[in-house]
Design goal:
CATH architecture of one domain: Roll
Number of helices: 5
Strand content: 15-25%
Order of helices and strands: HHHHHEEEEEE
Helix content: 55-70%
Strand order of the largest sheet: 1-4-5
CATH superfamily of one domain: Head domain of nucleotide exchange factor GrpE
CATH class of one domain: Mainly Beta
Radius of gyration: 48 Å
Number of strands: 6
Length: 201
């Protein structure tokens, strides 16, 4: 029984740390923390004759130049986007007007046909139905702000009219349009087709 008691006491002495052991560990940890805090910062090597004020001024100038360059590049890119968008809109509009230009001869045919409809059938429902098609073409031109050029009686303008003949006239002044043989068309400043006219001598 005494042997068992002695063995238990020896085991207890081995597991119990000696006095002051924990204090030593805490002191070591505190010393390591102090060393970490007091670690010197990396020093910047500067020439002995370095002028810090001059270096600061030069650094500010360089930063200003970089900022100006960035702002210019940003403005140029914004202008490029606007220009590209405008060119795309113009190209799309030109494509639309080109498509409309190909319809002008069909519109001419409708105009000529309705100008010569016999009175006997002018009230026929079939004529009314076909006239609705003509009105749809006219509405399409209005949607794209396309205007007809019919200069009869007005002064001849080579930018809008194409003279295909000249003759004497007692009713129209010299240099004015006697008759319009084929209407022209324009969309704003863009001429889709010149008007074919006869001009008074």
């Amino acid at each position: 029984m005494s042997d068992v008691k002695n063995a238990a006491e020896e085991l207890e002495r081995e597991e119990t740390p000696p006095e002051g052991a924990d204090d030593g560990a805490e002191e070591a940890t505190a010393e390591q923390a102090d060393e970490a805090v007091e670690a010197p910062e990396a020093e910047i090597d500067l020439p002995e004759d370095a002028n810090l004020l001059q270096m600061l001024i030069e650094a500010q100038k360089e930063a200003k130049a970089n900022e100006d360059g960035w702002q210019r590049a940003r403005a140029e890119f914004a202008n490029f986007k606007k220009r590209t968008a405008k060119e795309q809109r113009s190209a799309f509009q030109r494509g639309q007007l080109d498509a409309l230009s190909s319809l002008l001869t069909i519109i001419d045919d409708f105009d000529r046909a309705f100008a010569s409809v016999p009175e006997a059938i002018s009230e026929d429902p079939w004529i009314s139905g076909v006239s609705m098609i003509q009105r749809k073409f006219a509405t399409l031109l209005e949607q794209y702000e396309v205007e007809a050029i019919d200069p009869t009686g007005g002064p001849f303008d080579p930018n809008l009219h194409q003279a295909i003949g000249a003759e004497d006239s007692d009713e129209v002044e010299s240099g004015h349009v006697i008759s319009t043989l084929q209407k022209g068309y324009r969309a704003g400043e863009q001429i889709l087709r010149l008007a074919l006219v006869k001009v008074a001598n």
